[in-house]
Each structure stands twice: as structure tokens, then as C-alpha cells.
Amino acid sequence: MRSKDIVVFLGPSLDRAGAEAVLAADYRPPARRGDVFRAAEEGARIIGIIDGVFFQDSAVGHKEVLAVLEMGVYVVGASSMGALRAAELLPFGMEGVGEIFRLYRDGILISDDEVALIFDPISYGPLSEPLVNIRDNVLAAEKGGYIDDEAAALILEAASSLYFPKRSYDRILEEATGLDKADEEGFRRFLASERRDLKREDAVLALKRIKKIAVDMELLKEKAGDIP
What we know:
By secondary structure, the protein is α/β, with parallel strands linked by helices. It has helices at about 15-20, 35-40, 60-70, 80-90, 100-105, 130-145, 150-160, 170-175, 180-195, 200-225; strands at about 5-10, 25-30, 45-50, 75-80, 95. The protein has ten helices and five strands, in the order E-H-E-H-E-H-E-H-E-H-H-H-H-H-H. The chain has a five-stranded parallel β-sheet. Helix 4 links the parallel strand 4 (about 75-80) and strand 5 (about 95). Helix 4 (about 80-90) crosses helix 5 (about 100-105) and helix 6 runs antiparallel to helix 7. Mean pLDDT is about 90; it is low at about 220-228.
């Protein structure tokens, strides 16, 4: 399979170099309305939706993805916009990958705000922290004994109260009224040593899954004697 047969919409969830180390593909910026259908029309056989716009422009629509699925294109979603759409369109053939997809699929997460962030329009690097990552790290810090359950609740309350472009760990800890110094220092120690990036992890899993699908599609062609 040629790399241009695989189109992946990627942005702040994973840097381009990290993505290319996993999968050779046609990497495109976060998907806007019409981008996924355009990729299918251009001949993509597998489309990965990882990142997409939310508030900056019109988001990828459900009907658009359904139309692409009807064209016989395999569509995989994860991490951000892809996880949302995969959870919603799972019954219609879109595949979801990763923990964030699972959380949306199971109704544990509901709001788009959980994965929303702002990013550099040129490098696509993240400029704020998505709430889903914050939740994951707060839970891990609590389980690891860096903070107690009361501190975890205060940190999450502060994070949830902030508008998504303003979410950073420094700002969250400033806004966490009632958080004592020991818990603040404990959480900072956790972030320095064990901080996770759930969106990045899910993006890598999605690329590995797409690679497996691509290999399987080539094997199917070999069995059918249809190698060009």
C-alpha cells in the first residue's frame, strides 16, 4: 500500500516526527468540515482522524464520515475529534482506538470540552492542556500517593472552571482555592517525574492500528492474486 493511500489528520496530539516513526502516511492538518470527504475522493483507502478543529472552524460532520464509510473507506478515530466521532459512529462502521475513545463510548466523558485545546497554527504544537489529560494525571497522582482525594477534587474543580484555552497546570494550581502547599508540591513532583499525555498515547495506538489494517489489506490482495 502506498503512503498516499493512507491519510491521517493530525495536529497537537502527536508531533509529525513521532507519527512518521510509527507509520508512513499522508499527514494533513487537523480536519475541518469537508476534509475527510475530500481525502476519500482523492483515493484514500484508510483515513485516520486524530485531530480536528472544534471552535476555530466547522468541525467534521457525522454525515461526512458516514458518506466516506459508504464509499468503502476504512475510517479510524482516536485521541481527540477522532475519538468523539468514533464513539458516535461506532455502530455505522467507524473504528475507535484508545482510552479516550473508550471513555466517550461508555458515556464516562460527554463534552467536547474534555479534549479541546488551542494549538500553534504553524507547528500545531499544543498551547493549552486538554481536560482529559488533566483528569488522567490527577487520578494517577492520587493513586501514586502524591496528593489525597480532597486535593484531587480541588485541582479538577479548578481545571473544569477554566475556559479551555487558559488551561495550564500553573494556572490550574493558582486557581485551586483551598489546596495546601504540600499537595501543590506533591502534584508538581508528580508532573515532573510521571506526567502522562493520554492524547499522545492514544494517537500512537491509532497509528499502529492503521498500520496493521494496511498490512492486512495487502495480505488480502495477495490472497486474491490482485497484486498490481
